[in-house]
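Render this sequence as a predicted structure.
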Amino acid sequence: MRLLRCARNDRQKLAVLEYDMQKQFESKRRRVMKHEKFTRRDFMRNTSVIAAGTIAGALAGNTKAVGPVHTSKIMNYNEKMHYRRMGKSNLMISEVSLGGHWKNRNAGRYWDSFANEEVPADVAKNRTDVVSACIDSGINYLDITTAAECLCYGEAIKGRRDKMHVGADIHNLGPRGSDRCNVKDQTFNVETCLRLLKTDYLDIWRPQAKMAGKLGTSQLNTDEEVESLIETFQKLKKQGKVRHLGMSSHCRPWLEHVLNKYPEFEMIIFPCSAKTRAKGETPVKGNVEEVNPGHGSDQTQSIFETVIKQDVGIVTIKPYFGGSLFKSYGKVKFPVMGVGSKTENDLARLTLQCILANPSITATVPGLSTPYEAENAARASYTRPLGMTAADKQWLTEITDKQWENLPEEYQWLRDWEVV
């Protein structure tokens, strides 16, 4: 109460109140973990976390106890948006942020490159309008994975770089190729990002690791290759070109191995949808087996335990199964116009709320094709504390389960991430 009385305005009061609630949540989580006996029902009752899907049962809290963050220290602060600490980086990130992908002219999910590095005028306008809607909504993190995205968003954030934290890597220049896992090539990767973005630094360099595979094969990056990334990061950080280090991967055991061995990593990126659920306390047949086993990881526990222990932030991707959650998947081409379908807008918003019911997650980064999609996504954060109605939960579960059973071939790998 003393902190509240000393607050200068309503925004400060709100920030302090949210911090106190997070602290109470963390205290409860620690007590629960200490006794190691709780049920999902107990967790839901004791913490008042409401979710539409099974992910809400995750063990909780990706942050360690820290002092309250004054709202003036949060980039692009909006009192309606909720912000979360990205682990030991201490960056405060909007829990709904902006993924780099959006629909291309063939109804695909992303743009890879542009001829002569020239952004078409209609594309540049679209990205500028979407970024403007994000900034107006309080979104403050942008995650980029292709050269085309660097070019487009470089134009879109021109003159307002101070409104967005930027995490980037160019997938076909990154460490998915072993021949590129060296300081020279990864320095070129980062410097290409900077050149195309027309910026002097990346808030987060988050290279994309090899997609997936088994221990001892060339399908996963070796420790030596990971160490080359760390060496590159340390060199570029001294030069002021990067500030924080992350990693994107589709292999949970490998990510756990990296986090446990290399404290230099401050955030990770992996898929998460309304279908995702955390591993339970008691191992059962359905949540022990891994498609990508190895690296000595404890396959009976959730990756969120490792994240909590190492104080690492999580950014999750593929909230909409790469877009296949929606009936319009593969049918709507760029430029997407209008306010979209109410059904799909509701589905998108509730999906994000479901994902964010897990407090170990820092942010989810949906791809947003229109300003209205950006505004709708932001509302997932604005209204999340209200929880979902029973009808919303049932509706979301039914649609998600149906679409999950009909995942297109290119997204069958998401099944590896049903239980994490």
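Summary. The chain has a mean pLDDT of 84. The chain has one domain: 2-417.
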